[in-house]
Structure formats: C-alpha cells, structure tokens
Amino acid sequence: MAEIESYPDITIGLDRDGSLIIPEKVMRDIVLETLGCELWYNEKTSSLGVKLLRNEKFPPVSIVRSPDEGKRGLQGVIDAGNFLKRVGFQLPASVKKLSFRYFKNHQLLEIQLKSQNAQLPDSATNYLDDYPGLED
After folding, report:
1. What's the average model confidence in pLDDT over 57-77?
2. Where along the chain do its domains lie?
C-alpha cells in the first residue's frame, strides 16, 4: 500500500499561464533538491501527476526556484502551461489554489485541477492505474 501524505492547509497555485507555484514548505519537505519532473494528466479525476525525478540531471520538465514573496525560503515554479493546453485543460483566468497529496513511495504529487473545493479520493488503491506506466 502506498504511503500518502496530505497537506490540507497548503495549496499549490496554478497561474493563468499554466505555471504551478509550489510553496516553500512543499519545496523544503518534499521536492528538496530535485531538479525536475515528468507530468501526466488524469482525465478521470481531473488531476495532474507530477513525478519527481530524483538524481536526474536533465529532466523533461525543470523545477525553477525563486524567492517566496515575503518569506525567507524558495518557492518552486513548474512550467506546465503547454502540457495542460496539449491535454485540453482550460487554464484559469486568475491564480487558482489547488489541493494536492503526495505518494511518498512513488515520489508523485497528485494535484487536483477540477475545483479548489474538490477533494481528492481517499482511496490509495489503484491510483496509479490512472497514470501511464513509467519506462525504466
């Protein structure tokens, strides 16, 4: 069974251009020094999978660090705009706050895109069935 970490008081921002804004706490606790990720879109749950690629020197999607507004830490920015447009997701008219959860065993952030009030399913079983397989 996958170990799931939920962060009900923290949200990930989705900017109008499709940039994901990863808060400083998530960067510090989860992303750490990871340079990049792979992205998947799950139509069934309207969620975005962000597979963190540890020890990958040239990841397909980079995680850019920038100063967190008004804080001492760094926030992460993932340019997901082109990917989201390609899968047919309508980008928001203003910054949208999104709930997420982290599957520690798979280093996978699952970000709920559908609605800021939408809750992610509680079940930890078969969640990877909704994402394409990874190549070794």
Report:
1. 88
2. 4-116
